[in-house]
Amino acid sequence: MFYMLDGYLKNKYYDTLSPLSPCLREAEIFRLTVEEMPLEIRKGDEFAGWYGFADEYAPVTEAVREFPRVPGISPEKEALRLDMAREVQMEVAFSAAHTCIDYGKVLQEGLAGYRQKVERALAASPESEMLRAMELSLRAACRYGERFAALAAEKAAAETDAAEKMRLAEIAKGLSRVPQYGAETFRQAVQSIWLMHSLIPMAERSWASISLGRMDQYLYPFYRTHLQHGGTREEAKAILKHLFLLLDSYGDGACAMNIGGMDAQGREKLNELSFLLLEVEKEMALRAPIFVLRVSENTPDAVLDSLIDFDLFKIGQPTFYSEENCRKAVMHRGISEAEAAGFSCNSCMGLILAGQEFADMWGVKFNAHLPLELAVSGAPFHGKLPVNLPKCDPVTDFESLLRGYGHYFRALAALCGELSLAYAEEVAANSPDPLLSALTEGCIENRADRAVGAKYNTVTVETMGLTNTCDALMAIKQLVFEEKRYALGEMIAAAKADYAGYETLRQNILRCRKYGENDGEMNDLVRRVTEIAAEACRGQKNGNRMYLPSLHTIDANVWYGMTLPATLDGRKGGEPVGKNADPSFLLQKTEHTSVIQSAAAVVQTEFSGGQPIDLYFDKAWFAEKSTRDKIRALVRTYFRLGGLQLQVNSVDLELLKKAHPDPEKYPHVIIRKGGYSVRFSELGKEAREEFMAVMSRY
How far is 674 from 556, CA to CA, in rounded Å? Predict the structure, then answer.
């Protein structure tokens, strides 16, 4: 299976594509992808959707030829960006996809509505190549539906089975409308959703986290019409099951389907379609889509109870979000209450305004320990800081240490913000996406690419190892400033030596208070440190561009830790840093109540880039109603404490131990990766080991 043709197309049409401007070139590559992508409709399909299946097809047999580039990021800033990553693990990049279009608008207006908007803008700015590229891309997206329609009609003409012939004819009829025009039936609406969901990654050249938004809301009018015109619930269910099958067959699995939530007046919005989708989720039990239950105070306990099910938890489903707290977090960005009411939970972590925002979800991987190293020693413990930063006052006590940490965090955040903007401009100049730009509010008006032109551009600042740094600060507070057992220089020397020859010191560090134990003094420190991070990111706001701090790692905490030298929390070089907003792996034992109370100390409304906690439950939790009720109480309690997001897992640890040496023999074992669900066999050895270690401490 393949569905990324860009390398093949670049080589095949290089001479034609090379003279074009980047935006027109990208539009043409997208058009060629739509025209040359192999399509398939299988017997019994409820609607068309399979593509990229051609075993004999070898798209790229030689090196991909590069096109000329237009000026973007300066050579000096690009060199600094690369040096920061290499020397001090401070990474600034651009992450394509991670988006959510306004599916409701597409279902109502079709792409024709967007084309009309582009054409009006072109009439005012006929010289704009970006607008021309948007128009070409929208036309190509419509052509995708036309190709599927022709295939369905061809198969219908050749079909001898009467029922199958009628089914194919119905599919062809629907594809004559969508996605070019608004949908008229439930089947057409789902067909349009899938086509758009698959077109966006073709244009972005990335399947990462293409989310579905509030599907039970925008699809509900079509469901009601379906029933009113004699359609049945079972017919709709069959269509949805086919959609789920397609969603599970393509991409990284991080496509969030929002269920429930509230309207602008605060009323619970669960409806008949919500419950049908819940039913499909339970029956299908697939790794994708990510099933997001938006929990409000008005959400019936019975709804939560129906999802506290071992068969779902063992594949990491569902994810629970607090409706009230998420809305507050979006408003905390400066978004109006009216707009914030329309937010969606995006992909595996953050919050997004569908169709209005481009979220660069991995824009900055911020080494949260580096400001501490600079505060205590004036330089990184390893590597060389490739830029001069203003010095802070010497550390004389714990308060001066925190001030120094904040000083360097702000300075580094400012540097990352500057590099992030420059790199986004590079992407907009040389790797634009005219289709997604046309579908994202602000880009048509600004005649600009989604990387810089969206109404809201948000950059997630992944504070890698921030909870480890909180543990390190507490260890210094206890051992140096309170107990006076060690000098600060001795702790620095131990970390620089990867604790070789300092094992007694390391063990004393490990016995200090830790995040995840619900210690009052530790929780206060976590609150102060996350306030420092939030204030530093907030200070980088630049027009429509916002920087959102995050404790969102998925399993990147493992590979990021491989490159990070030892840290002052007792973690040795190469070991994982903290995963998401969870305690460090160095905390050997914990329990669920302490985890949620510790995580509530994070300044939740500031961390709308994503800060989930992961709770792991043994199968025994599901045997009795009383213990299942405790899980529901944990969810409710965390949200009443201010939490935004809670992820769950329940996997047989003994099964994982069997699967770990030879995971390919256990292809059906699915676990929650930390943001979305994957097959256990898809994880690397180190990530499998880290997952089992975390499971075993509960």
Answer: 9
Q: Is residue 111 within 8 Å of residue 141, measured between CB atoms?
A: yes
Distance from C-alpha of 513 to C-alpha of 23, rounded to nearest angstrom? 54
Q: Which residues of 15-53 are buried (b: 16+ CB within 10 A; e: fewer)?
A: eebeebebbbbbbbbbbbbbeebebebeeebbbbbbbbe
pLDDT in tens, 569-627: 999 999 999 999 999 988 877 789 999 999 999 999 999 888 899 998 988 999 999 99
Q: Residue 670 and residue 218: Cα distance in Å, rounded?
A: 30
Which of helix, strand or coil describes residue 362?
A: strand
Strand-pair partners of 460? 548
State the pairing for strand pair 256-260/290-295. parallel
CB 349 within 8 A of CB 609: yes
Sign for the pseudo-dihedral over CA of 677, 679, 683, 689: positive
Side by side, the strands of the sheet bearing 290-295 are 256-260, 290-295, 319-322, 645-649, 613-616
Distance CA 398, CA 347 (A): 39
Q: Residue 524: how many CB atoms within 10 A of its CB?
A: 11
Tell me the two tokens of residue 354.
Answer: 């569908």
Read off the pLDDT of residues 424-468 as tens digits, 9 standing for 90 and up: 999 999 999 999 999 999 999 999 999 999 999 999 999 999 999
Tell me the pairing of strands 351-353 and 343-345. Answer: antiparallel
